[in-house]
Design goal:
Oligomer: single chain
Largest sheet: 3 strands, antiparallel
Number of helices: 2
Number of strands: 3
Strand order of the largest sheet: 1-2-3
Order of helices and strands: HHEEE
Distance between the termini: 27 Å
Radius of gyration: 11 Å
Structural class: alpha+beta
Amino acid sequence: MEELFTCTMDIGEQMLIAGAEVHRVEDSIHRMCSAIGYPRVDVFIITSSMVVTVYDEAGHWLTQTRRVDG
């Protein structure tokens, strides 16, 4: 699941670089992570930064932060 989470971050980063609206990227990442199976997804994106935390069913969490230059 962690590999898929990284892929969703890659997709979100490319969306921002391509000029997608912040709200669209947040919504897309949230939907993709939910589809992977994470019951809770916290997404915070601005045009130059992405912070996403996902929680599994056991309450374990994983956070990725990325600086977006594009």
